[in-house]
């Protein structure tokens, strides 16, 4: 072992406390990177395998009704490789012991053999007997929510008639990895279920014998998906087709794809923030280490060691710290990643999940950590290699001490001598003080990032369900219904207020941009369902145009108020409308296009027609009202906002809490690492000065006050700066996590600020206690030895 390598090991051992603290900062960034990348790779691999093994379709086409003979004409469309028709029925379900209304979807499966596309994974039980009249498979989410098992019975109202179904198996489908009721914002596994029956039994019960109302297909190699969709729409238009769409627009897949994008963003943004702090901290530490070892560097150069060898020595020191951090980060990230993947398995329904940590993820973590470490210390290392031996063997030029601003203002009489020494040292080393302050501020800012998401989600739910959608219940009809149905609902016991709405599937176009969604006809001055502006104030829907939510208008369609929007209606007469954009509203969940209901009815030339109703009711009359609505034959489904919110927190709460726990833990580690290193570096730099004061008669408490008082002043000054840093970092997250499914609001509560300040303060106290312990071990004789 060479002399420099022995010196390297000694330096590592002597600086072990600082090195572990810096490695902890690197570990936090690497753990976040590995956790996100490994979870992303695992989910992506599982999704692709599930889609491939169970033949997930690439194009879907819903319609009213078409004869089975039409299937052959559809198979003749150029670009179609495999095509399968089926029957899908929207139903009401009844489960013994559960009184709330339940909606569901019944899908047909072939009476013989497996489906050609969208095959099912049989988790438990068996397939229905061929041509059985009452056997069905049920989705595992619904079965788990109601503790159903094979042999249990579920009532299904199909085409107005109650049918008792015997559950013979529990299954999963690539179509319902993310299972949510149509029109809902969140999954509710208790109140929405998916079941599968034999094709013949379902067709007869639903009045579809010899017909179909859904098409699924895959594409031939080289086929253009839009050409196939256009041909499908043209041929299915006479049969009530409402617009074919590709896999990317299939709701379950779209939500899963967006979640994977968020994981990719997490793997970019969070590690960049954490490792940026680590690079900054490494630069500070190595710079100060080199400053304390200038005499050693000079001696090495005097003995003939070249600049490159000395520079490589310090690079190896940095790499050793990085390796410790990366090794810990990979292990911690794999552990967290495995836990996060398990949380996702509760939310997304896969038949299997093979957690994988690919070697490229480890190599990326190592490369990113090395680049952050070396990049952050390169300047300090270059400065060390350029130091002439004669200059390095001399002590540094003493700092010129002059009267401080406080003293020039005549305020020194209010301060004792140690307090004045603290202020002098801070003012006369402004760069060092500023770097320490920024480092502590970054640590506090990271704590705000780690604890930000839960508060943002609470705010999103509050805006969506307490300010914009203020109804207690959303009622959806089987098909558009005359407006007089609202009077019938208003007359039910317990109903306070009713507002009708009309939703129509549409493709919105502006220039080359387009987006498939629904055009929502609402009351112009609705009290239950409202659109809000950027200040969350109600917006009146104008009589001569459409209002778009901000993300849809700005980021998807790129329209502004006054632009003319093309609306391609995907049902009924399939009109193409030109409607001006009259305003933009604020919405955090989903995207919407609002128009007055009466205007939409006029444009569609259909009279006073509603798709459903928003209802507010007496809290103590909810049960009887739900049952009364559930018994109405034209009512397809009910969505109670209170239960939707509870379901949202039950399903997403575990994920949010897990991610918050990980982020907060890693941010806390970084905060302690930054503050502790600041204290240790200050102690290393001022050990000679403090020892001199001890020899001159200062007590241990007085020199501790001088050292730790400076840390306290800088920490107190850094806390408000950290608030600004945290707000800026959260702003980066807001921009990075934008999608058409949800947008995070930039909302920081007092809890965010309080937790950040508390963690920084506690880190400072713990660091001060450790520094106090080391002050008692100062070698006064050794420290005071001159180097001249």
Taking the sheet with the most strands, its summary is: 6 strands, mixed, barrel
Name the strands of the widest sheet in spatial order: 3-4-9-6-8-7
List how many beta strands DSSP finds.
Answer: 22
Count of discrete alpha- or pi-helical segments spanning 4 or more residues = 23
Structural class: alpha+beta
Please describe what this structure looks like:
- With 788 residues, this protein is of the alpha+beta class.
- Helices cover 53% and strands 20% of the residues.
- It is built from 23 helices and 22 strands.
- The strands form four sheets. A six-stranded mixed β-barrel has the order 3-4-9-6-8-7.
- Helix 7 (251-292) packs parallel to helix 10 and helix 20 (641-695) runs parallel beside helix 22.
- The two termini are 30 Å apart.
Main traits of this protein?
53% helix; elongated; six-stranded mixed barrel; 23 helices; single chain; alpha+beta; 788 residues; 22 strands
Topology:
Layout: H1 3-14, H2 16-53, E1 59-67, H3 70-75, E2 80-86, E3 88-95, E4 98-109, E5 121-125, E6 135-139, H4 140-146, E7 153-158, E8 161-172, E9 192-198, H5 199-206, E10 211-219, H6 225-236, E11 245-246, H7 251-292, H8 294-302, H9 307-347, H10 359-385, H11 389-393, H12 405-408, H13 417-428, H14 430-450, H15 452-468, E12 473-482, H16 485-490, E13 495-510, E14 513-522, E15 531-532, E16 538-539, E17 546-549, H17 550-557, E18 564-569, E19 576-585, E20 593-596, H18 597-604, E21 609-617, H19 622-630, E22 635-640, H20 641-695, H21 700-736, H22 750-775, H23 780-784
Parallel strand pairs: 4-9, 6-8, 14-20, 17-19
Antiparallel strand pairs: 1-10, 1-11, 2-10, 3-4, 3-7, 5-8, 6-9, 7-8, 12-21, 12-22, 13-14, 13-18, 13-21, 15-16, 17-20, 18-19
């Amino acid at each position: 072992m060479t002399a420099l390598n022995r010196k390297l090991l000694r330096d590592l051992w002597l600086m072990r406390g600082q090195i572990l603290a810096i490695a902890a900062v690197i570990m936090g960034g690497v753990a976040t990177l590995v956790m996100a990348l490994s979870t992303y790779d695992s989910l992506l691999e599982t999704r692709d395998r599930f889609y491939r093994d169970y033949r997930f379709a690439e194009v879907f086409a819903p319609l009213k009704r078409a004869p089975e003979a039409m299937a052959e004409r559809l198979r003749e469309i150029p670009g179609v490789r495999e095509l399968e028709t089926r029957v899908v029925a929207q139903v009401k379900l009844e489960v013994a012991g559960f009184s709330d209304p339940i909606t569901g979807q019944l899908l047909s499966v072939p009476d013989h053999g497996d489906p050609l596309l969208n095959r099912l994974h049989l988790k438990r039980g068996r397939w229905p007997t061929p041509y059985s009249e009452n056997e069905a498979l049920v989705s595992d989410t619904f079965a788990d929510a109601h503790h159903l098992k094979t042999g249990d019975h579920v009532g299904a109202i199909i085409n107005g008639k109650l049918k008792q179904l015997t559950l013979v198996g529990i299954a999963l489908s690539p179509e319902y990895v993310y299972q949510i009721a149509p029109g809902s914002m969140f999954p509710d596994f208790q109140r929405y279920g998916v079941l599968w029956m034999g094709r013949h039994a379902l067709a007869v019960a639903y009045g579809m014998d010899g017909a179909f109302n859904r098409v699924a297909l895959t594409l031939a190699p080289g086929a253009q998906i839009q050409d196939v969709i256009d041909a499908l729409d043209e041929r299915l238009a006479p049969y009530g087709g409402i617009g074919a769409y590709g896999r990317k627009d299939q709701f379950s897949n779209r939500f899963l794809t967006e979640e994977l994008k968020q994981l990719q963003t997490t793997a970019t943004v969070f590690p960049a923030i954490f490792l940026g702090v680590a690079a900054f901290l490494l630069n500070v530490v190595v710079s100060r280490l080199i400053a304390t070892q200038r005499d050693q560097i000079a001696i090495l150069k005097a003995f003939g060691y070249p600049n490159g060898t000395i520079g490589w020595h310090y690079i190896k020191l940095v790499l050793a710290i990085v390796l410790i951090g990366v090794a810990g980060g990979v292990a911690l990230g794999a552990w967290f990643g495995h836990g996060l993947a398990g949380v996702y398995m509760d939310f997304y329904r896969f038949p299997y999940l093979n957690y994988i940590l690919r070697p490229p993820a480890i190599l990326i973590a190592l490369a990113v950590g090395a680049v952050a470490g070396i990049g952050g210390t390169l300047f300090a290392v270059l400065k060390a290699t350029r130091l002439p031996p004669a200059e390095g063997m001399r002590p540094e030029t003493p700092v010129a001490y002059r009267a401080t601003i406080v003293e020039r203002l005549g305020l020194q009489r209010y301060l004792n001598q140690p307090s004045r020494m603290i202020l002098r040292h801070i003012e006369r080393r402004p760069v060092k003080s500023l770097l320490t302050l920024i480092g502590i501020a970054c640590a506090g800012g990271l704590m705000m990032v780690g604890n930000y998401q839960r508060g943002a989600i609470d705010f999103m739910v509050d805006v969506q369900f307490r300010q914009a959608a203020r109804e207690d219940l959303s009622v959806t009809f089987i098909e558009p219904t005359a407006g007089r149905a609202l009077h019938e609902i208003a007359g039910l016991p317990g109903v306070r207020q009713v507002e009708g709405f009309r939703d129509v599937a549409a493709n919105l176009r502006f220039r080359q941009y387009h987006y498939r969604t629904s055009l929502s006809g609402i009351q112009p001055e609705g009290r239950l369902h409202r659109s809000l502006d950027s200040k969350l104030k109600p917006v009146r829907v104008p009589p001569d145009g459409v209002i778009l939510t901000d993300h849809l208008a700005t980021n998807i369609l790129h329209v502004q108020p006054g632009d003319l929007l093309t609306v391609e209606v995907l049902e009924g007469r399939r009109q193409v409308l030109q409607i001006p954009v009259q305003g933009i509203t604020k919405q955090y969940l989903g995207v919407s296009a609002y128009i007055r209901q009466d205007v939409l009815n006029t444009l569609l030339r259909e009279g006073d027609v509603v798709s459903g109703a928003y209802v507010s009711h007496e809290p103590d009359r909810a049960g009887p009202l739900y049952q009364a609505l559930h018994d109405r034959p034209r009512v397809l489904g009910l969505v109670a906002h209170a239960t939707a919110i509870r379901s949202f927190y039950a399903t997403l709460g575990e994920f949010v809490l897990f991610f918050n726990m990980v982020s907060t833990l890693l941010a806390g580690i970084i905060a302690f690492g930054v503050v502790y290193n600041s204290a240790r570096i200050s102690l290393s730099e001022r050990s000679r000065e403090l020892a001199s004061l001890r020899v001159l008669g200062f007590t241990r408490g007085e020199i501790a006050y001088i050292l730790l008082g400076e840390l306290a002043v800088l920490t107190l000054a850094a806390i408000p700066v950290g608030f600004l840093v945290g707000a800026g970092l959260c702003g980066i997250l807001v921009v990075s996590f934008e999608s058409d499914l949800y947008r995070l609001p930039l909302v920081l509560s007092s809890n965010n600020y309080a937790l950040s300040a508390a963690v920084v303060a506690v880190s400072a106290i713990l660091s001060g206690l450790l520094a106090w312990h080391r002050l008692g071990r100062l070698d006064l004789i050794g420290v005071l030895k001159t180097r001249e």
